[in-house]
Amino acid sequence: xxxxxxxxxxxxxxxxxxxxxxxxxxxxxxxxxxxxxxxxxxxxxxxxxxxxxxxxxxxxxxxxxxxxxxxxxxxxxxxxxxxxxxxxxxxxxxxxxxxxxxxxxxxxxxxxxxxxxxxxxxxxxxxxxxxxxxxxxxxxxxxxxxxxxxxxxxxxxxxxxxxxxxxxxxxxxxxxxxxxxxxxxxxxxxxxxxxxxxxxxxxxxxxxxxxxxxxxxxxxxxxxxxxxxxxxxxxxxxxxxxxxxxxxxxxxxxxxxxxxxxxxxxxxxxxxxxxxxxxxxxxxxxxxxxxxxxxxxxxxxxxxxxxxxxxxxxxxxxxxxxxxxx
Length: 326
Description:
About 50% of the residues lie in helices and about 5% in strands. By secondary structure, the chain is mostly helical. The chain starts with a helix and ends with a helix.
């Protein structure tokens, strides 16, 4: 998986043509956000649905023009067609894929033939997983828009909020399903095919469920900081990574502040059977980290008041095994 990720990072870093147009990177950012918000739930990208994102695309182009004193026009049909030259974007009907690059179809033509694009299957699997999708997103922003990072991220956040508002009911429903699912036996891994049908709401729904169970509190340091808009310093962390388990069961989740989330994912600490922190030996070259984590050693984390919502022992055992392999 890591080799595949590195391959696509390199490919995304080569999207622009000699004129340095921003259209392909922006189209790809929009596709990522459609996966994030749930507007795409399978490896099939209809041009008609992409066209509906023109306001998003226009805002991104405007931000780019302001930051680079250029005057690019938003043109979705061009980037939708020409992205095929990068090798991982495949057009249907087949005549589009074989059509010479100099014969760019109009938007009306793409609509009339119900044009659809598909990604390499390996790339789509990466994009379904939030942690890899974020890496690829940041690759695009750092490669092409580092001088206007803040402006681009503001546009993305604006349209992400609009997208989440559109599926708010679905997010709430999925969150409730996750909480109710604790009545069933815990599964270490789910079938990836079943996950794709939940992609529209799964990331936001999982976070909502974990935040409700842990009351926005870090289980390790019990930090609880929230803004008036509802943003929180805590993350909904998977114990067995989603890329391994495909499992949003709340018993495979834990609420952690951003620092402890990073340390947990980096295998710098784990939890034993009684929910006490365990810290593996750390080399002396990491003395500041060692001192910080040693203060946590043997501390019992804060656990949900409802026992069946607590982290699954099977998930913790998997995480301990990974930590101790260092």
